[in-house]
Structures are given as structure tokens and as C-alpha cells.
Amino acid sequence: MEKSKKLAGNQKKTTKKSKIDSSINSPKSSFPIAGIGASAGGLEALDLFLTHVPKNCGIAFVIVQHLDPKHKGIMPELLQRSTKMKVFQVQDRMKVEPDCVYVIPPNKDMSILHGALHLFEPAPEINPFRHFENFNQLESAKYGREKRQEKPGQ
Fold first, then answer.
1. Residue among 139, 111, 113, 140 nearest 123 (CA)
2. pTM exceeds 0.85
3. Fewest CB within a 10 Å sphere: which of 10, 20, 21, 114?
4. What does DSSP assign to residue 71?
5. DSSP states of 11-59 as a string?
């Protein structure tokens, strides 16, 4: 797509504007996705936060909380009381939509790729409650690669 700009003296400068790839293979989404990390005691803070987020804010929220791997996850039900947005416990390959809240299930690690959340078994570590750190590192590395691949002016 070409776009013309008028310059002084009726000269025209033509610039090319890149098209945005909106295919399923595109790592970009048309809405922001906010990753939120919380400790096991973070329910009150998450509750307070979601109480103040408007229902139609256009943002997807992915909550990665340190949970006891042996307990059933009831976080989605607890958070649903605080917001009019839909709250989901993540299932593998769940597509992310705006104005929704996604909560990691217990004893899982998670990543996001092409607009879908992917669950996997947590790696054995010294600190078994590093779910958010793992999620954040994966996303930061991916975001960094995308930014390095973009060229100025695109």
C-alpha cells in the first residue's frame, strides 16, 4: 500500500506502508495481553485489581499464580465474583480473547504462542513455584526476538 505526502512546493513523497499480517501464524494480536504474576497469598490483590477493571477494556488478562500443586484450583470461581469479565481456568491450547481473564491451573507451566495458551508439565526445579517467572521469561524472549526482527519504519 502506498501513501503520498505533500511537501513544500507541491512535491510529493511516496512512502510504503507495511501491511499487518493477521493470519493465525502471526505472533501479534490486535489487543493487549497482560500477564499478571501473584504469590499464593495474592487473591486479595487480584480481587481488588479486577474490581476496578472495566468489563469492555479490550485487554486479556493472564494470571499466573503460585499454587500448591496438590490442591484443586478454585481461583477462577473466586475471581469471577470480582469482575463482569469471563474468568477461565486455562485448558491447553485455549485461544485468548479480549475482555477475559485466564488463570493457570495448579501444577502446570504455561506459555502463549499465536494467541493460544499452552500448558505443560513443570520442569523439576529447586523452586517449584516459579510458574510466573517461567511464563514471563518465555514471553520476554519471544518479544525480544520479534522486536529485533522488525526494521525501523515498519
1. 111
2. no
3. 10
4. S
5. -EEEEE-PPP--STT-S--SS-EEEEEE-TT-HHHHHHHHHTS-TT-S-
> Which is nearest to 117 in space by CA: 132, 89, 96?
96
Task: State which amino acid sits at residue 32.
Answer: P
Here the CATH number for the domain that contains residue 87 is 3.40.50.180
Q: Residue 110, Cα to own-chain centre: how many angstroms?
A: 11
Whole-angstrom distance, CA of residue 96 vs CA of residue 118: 11
Cell representation of residue 23: 493470519
**Alpha carbon distance 23, 131 (integer Å):** 29
Q: Give yes or no for residue 15 having a pLDDT over 50.
A: no
Q: What is the pLDDT of residue 11?
A: 47
* Per-residue pLDDT reduced to its tens digit, 32-60: 999 998 887 899 999 999 999 999 999 99
CB neighbours of residue 47 within 10 Å: 14
In a domain? residue 99: yes
Residue whose grid cell is 526494521: 151
Domain extent for 47: 28-145
